[in-house]
UniProtKB/TrEMBL annotation, chain A:
InterPro entries: Emp24-like (IPR015720), GOLD_dom (IPR009038)
TM region positions: 190-212
Keyword Signal included in the entry's annotation: yes
UniProt protein name: GOLD domain-containing protein
Organism: Salvia splendens
Similarity annotation: Belongs to the EMP24/GP25L family.
Length: 225, 216
């Protein structure tokens, strides 16, 4: 990928352009108790943006679904030169309890990050989530490269915006699934309960008639009624 | 979970980052022995999808213990198996998604007496991200910026298509809601009818019963 310009500078540019953020993960997990996903953040001050939606939930009489608890923990940072742990393991960066879906967006420092979902209810739930670690090369990073053009940073920003639009779309799609699931379940339950109501009504009136007939039938006791 | 990053030389750092990026741009999760974990992804029809998985070595420098082996199966939305490998430490798959829908990649770790936890590194890309841009770049002296912009054009096209799809789904849901609303309307009329007719039949039956018994 080296062009006519100085080989190393070109390589630098190439690598930065190619390496910056097309990193995104879009998956759906079935969470029974606790499910964790790890993602490594290379640069300090990268933005982690993402969203999650509980898709397949047990719609029931309870008006609100308990949802899942979401935590973002930072793994320990190991300084490669000192080979020592500088930050303790599992420090919580962000925590959200009992939500059926949310978006999040924050700057994190580099290191291994752990995205965890905890399901408080007994039934397993499917969670669709998308994560994107975005990095925009800043002027200071490439200060040593005299061929740095501001347009590259602008292109990176544009790419970040496009990725955020894509993430938002995926979020809307997952929410659409959630709503559709709720609607279909509501429809089935309502029709079921209405037909059950009719059957119950007819059965009860039949029982009433049978009881009244029994009250007035002679062989039971002549003078009782 | 040490990922070696060399600090000497800025360019060396970037080169290592680049090589790491092409290999370690991924999600990792823990798999207990004897358990199955499934990850599903919604893939559109006729889009390329590429997946790569490997077991992360907890001790750098020592070989992986023999017990750390996983079985992977990738199934399509309708249950057709697209990829299956048994007892491996790493592998990859790539296929053209014929059916649109939820594709599932399931990982199973064989049961082991002291229950071990295997960390699996998994990278699954589909659609725009799965396209091999490095080969496109090598085809000629293509400007780097042009590649980036081409990528973005592809992304914008995907966003445009997704918007159509979302609009269709929303319309379907609206129709479903309207149909449910209609049904509920007719059902409530029907319930009044059922109630009145049941009462009428009861009264008529009891009246004829009492007249027969000569009580009225």
């Amino acid at each position: 990928m080296a062009r006519g310009m100085g080989g190393e500078a070109a390589a630098l540019l190439c690598l930065l352009m190619m390496s910056a953020s097309w990193r995104a993960a879009a998956l759906s997990l079935i969470v029974t108790d606790v499910e964790c996903v790890y993602e490594y953040v290379y640069y300090k001050d990268d933005t982690v943006s993402g969203n999650f939606v509980v898709v397949d939930h047990d719609a029931s009489w309870r008006s609100s679904n308990p949802g899942v608890d979401f935590t973002l923990k930072r793994g320990s940072i190991i300084d490669p030169e000192l080979m020592q742990v500088t930050t303790p393991e599992n420090s919580i960066v962000y925590s959200l309890k009992g939500s059926t879906g949310d978006k999040f967006d924050f700057k994190v420092s580099s290191g291994m990050h752990k995205f965890c979902f905890h399901n408080p209810s007994n039934s397993p739930e499917a969670v669709a989530f998308n994560i994107h670690v975005g990095h925009i090369p800043k002027q200071q990073d490439l200060a040593k490269d005299e061929h740095f053009e501001p347009v590259n940073a602008k292109i990176a920003e544009l790419r970040e915006s496009l990725t955020s639009v894509t993430l938002e779309q995926k979020y809307l799609k997952a929410r659409g699934y959630h709503h559709r699931h709720t609607n279909e379940s509501t429809r089935k339950r309502v029709i079921g309960y209405t037909v059950g109501e009719y059957v119950l009504l007819v059965a009860l009136s039949g029982l009433q008639v049978v009881y009244i007939r029994k009250l007035f039938s002679k062989p039971v006791a002549y003078g009782r009624v | 979970m040490n990922i070696p990053i060399q600090r000497k030389g800025f360019s060396l750092l970037l080169i290592s980052v680049f090589s790491l990026w092409s290999r370690a741009d991924s999600i990792r999760f823990d798999l207990e022995s004897g358990h199955t974990k499934c990850i599903s992804e919604d893939i559109k029809s006729n889009s390329m999808t590429v997946g790569k998985y490997q077991i992360v070595n907890p001790n750098d420098g020592h070989p992986l213990p023999d017990s750390h082996k996983i079985t992977v199966r990738v199934t399509s939305a309708y249950g057709n198996s697209q990829h299956y490998s048994d007892d491996v430490t790493e592998g990859h798959f790539a296929f053209q998604a014929v059916e649109a829908g939820d594709y599932m990649a399931c990982f199973f770790a064989a049961d082991h007496k002291p229950s071990t936890t295997i960390t699996v590194d998994f990278d699954w890309k589909s659609g725009v991200a799965a396209k091999d841009w490095t080969s496109v770049a090598k085809k000629g002296s293509v400007e780097l910026m042009e590649i980036e912009l081409k990528k973005m054009l592809d992304t914008v096209q995907t966003i445009h298509d997704e918007m159509y799809y979302l609009r269709e789904r929303e319309e379907e849901m609206q129709l479903l809601n309207k149909a449910t609303n209609n049904k509920m309307f007719w059902f409530s009329f029907l319930s009044i009818l059922v109630c009145l007719s049941v009462t009428g039949i009861q009264l008529w039956h009891l009246k004829s019963f009492f007249e027969k018994k000569k009580l009225i």
